[in-house]
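Appendix B, example 12.
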Amino acid sequence: MGLKSYPRLYFELIFVGFTLFMGMRLPDAFLPIFADELDPTGVLVGFVISAWFFSRIFMELPSGVLADRVGKRRLLVGGLALSAVGALICSMANSIYLLILGRTIWGLGTALFFMSNTALILDLFKSSMRGRALGTFQGIEFIGSFIGAPIGGFIVGFIGYTGVFSLALVLMLCSLSLASISRDLRKVDTSRREGSQVSVREAVLSLGTWGLAAVCISNLLRMLIMMGVMSTVFPLYLNYQLGISVEYIGIVMSLRTVGYILSTVTSGYLSDMFGRKPMIISGTLLQTGCMYAYALLPSFELLLLIGLFDGFGSGMSFTSLIVLLSEIVPPGVRGGAIGMYRTFMDIGGLTGPLFFMLIFTNMGPYITFLVAVAILALNIALVLTIRAKKPQAKPDQVSG
């Protein structure tokens, strides 16, 4: 099944996701600096970053269950609208409190979008096609993320901080416009909602299975490493301990992102052929080796290579984990399951930087990387306990 035979809605969702991802990444290069200028004491700068995750923790699961009842399109469009409102508030921010408010609303909007968008793509494809469909989709999304940050960093010198947020607002509105007028999106959502017979109580109770719990915990551990080590400790380690400049750190991180993008596409195809668990375990093993190598091989050239492999391993587990989740829960409660999955992801994103910074500050980088290795090993053991289904050749019978 080639890309030409994919439904038109799939490509519409790709465009919406790509545009949203690019817009939300535009401020990445300067956001902490802008926050620090608004609050010279620096007390509230951390809230600007964490507000993005904090607002999502309490809404992911309720919105997932709600999507199974009222339709994923409504939540997707609502999420894009909230993202636009958040970007608008940030573009007018003349105090750090407005910036925090804008980031909170923006983060909530993206949570609603990503939950609904992922559930829709899983609904569109039969089990044997989900890996490649979702992997391709996520790879294109991450390209938007990859180019958004450097574009924002480059143009901020010309249009200022608020000007970059205004550009992000334009991109949010483009996504919102397409999603609002899409006939295919409206049609698919209506047909799924009319067939739903699952009550909210039944949906919540059906989520209490070990397979889903294990997938969610695995996602939490994955985010602990991603946000706690790679997004927080790793740049500090490269700069403070190894003396690598910020410009070269950006190259290492960019190469890791390249590996991530390549992996999300290729591992999607491989997971359809060989199964989800082998991809998750292989990717986590690759990450484990890279995590230990970071502490042992301080050469910049070697760090570039390790970063590429690390990103590849991380992408392998990311794509296959969400597809695995879709195959261990009934289709009628898939939205709620994704909501729970993303709740655990947000908890990991919120607590990871605090947890690993505490270790890094008190015990140093070597122990920090060893703890990360132990967590990744625990993740492998956890995934081995999940009873996974093999990809099925026939389409799902979707009821909600």
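The longest helix spans residues 127-181. The chain has two domains: 8-196, 203-387.
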